[in-house]
Amino acid sequence: MAVPLPGYSPSFKRPPEVVRLRRKRSQSRGAAVPAALPEPTPRRAALAAGLPLRPFPTAGGRGGAAAAVPRRNPFARLDNRPRVADEAREEPSRGPQGAPASLLDSNGENNLLWKEASHERTVTELSQSQHVSFSESDTTSSEDHLKAQEEAQGLIQHCRAAEVTLPQSIQDPRLCTELRCAFQQTLVYWLHPAFSWLPLFPRIGADRKMAGKSSPWSHDETLQHTLMSDWSVSFTSLYNLLKTKLCPFFYVCTYQFTVLFRAAGLAGSDVVTALISPTTRGLREAMKNEGIEFSLPLLEESGCKKKVREANLEYEEEQAASDEDEEESLSWLEEIGVQDQIKKPDTISIRLLREKHEVQVDHRPESVVLVKGLNTFTLLNFLINCKSLVATSGAQAGLPPTLLSPVAFRGASMQMLKARSINVKTHALSGYRDQFSLEITGPIMPHALHSVTMLLRSSQRGSFSAGMYAHEPTAVFNVCLPLDKDLHRKVDHKDLANCGLHPKTLEQLSQIPLLGKSSLRNVEMSDYIFNWRS
Asked: What predicted TM-score, i.e. pTM, was given to this entire model?
């Protein structure tokens, strides 16, 4: 048996560190600390003989006292208060009619219930990370704890677009194989290009995360050409799937802006639509030169458009008046011989003056561009041939934009959202209780968010809460776009039955967005009724 170190006591976990810490504290205060404490004679003899040492007797044990009360371990867990196994859950505050208390969002919409199959809100922003926490003792296990058979079954269900219908309430979620497979199915998404050492979402402002990473294509034009060629094939494949209604939507994430392509039948439109945000005046001018017809839906008549029109009228009036004055001023300047020394305003300055209000919306949510119908195909060719689509310097130099899709496409790589379960202890009235939190991180697309809420609805008996952290540049995709009047009619989304989405998720995404320019921040379900705020 090994001889314990001096100062050893079994009632402590790490006494050497504690003694060392106390010595350091006393030295910092200027107190004189002896180098070593003298050992008692019996302990010295025991150490010399190699015999095991007994612990020091406790206070009151000296003088031949019998067994003494052991000291409390100061390093024991702090949660040793009595636990409450079946403690009643804390109910949320309720309104006068028993509904959950209203939450006022930034748009002033009060007490909007997010019910299933009615009054649901379309969410089309991308989320960087999502945290779902609930107070039940049961939890949906993360992908790390899935059995091999369950993981394989979940992947097969995703590839085959299998429709999984769970009961309204699951008694024991930990033993429900269907639930665990459906959870694995929900975490799958498709990505191009795919480099395991590079974070490919988000791309806007990702230079810091990519700095120092290996990028062999940054100075190799041949490799850059190969990457862009493969990317063009994947992009075209995605658009063809979208046009034939086999893909509901997909994202193109560049280092400057994000493009959302939606199939006909989604968001209340019966034609293919594309949203670009944020944009700049240079990008919009380039799109005009390529013959792409688009609109700026958030520049309302009473807002920036009116200001631009008023600025143009004001400029024309000033220009007409200045033409008359210019003839007189030039004749006067010619008389004194200095007309060649006066610098006239150049055409670029005049043009910037006329469009200063339009330039002010650059990089803002109001700069979102809407492209619809056949113009989306022209936009496809424009993006493939646009040289400014790829950064020429920095950490993202030569790297093609990221393609994100809920379904497989040519050249895509299957990826998984990161999910983990966390068990935390929260204070209760008479002790502590376990509370589980499910954390999902990655490019969470709208269909994945809706699918997770449906799973938690069944596994948590209709009560849970969730917090979302959205990718801000994509929050504007939630706005209700002023499409043509013929597009606001009831759109039949039955043609999208083979797009790979659950029917209830498809019904959710086919509705006209009503969230505005903001995004979901918190969702809470109580008694199978949703209440949300942005």
From this structure: 0.68
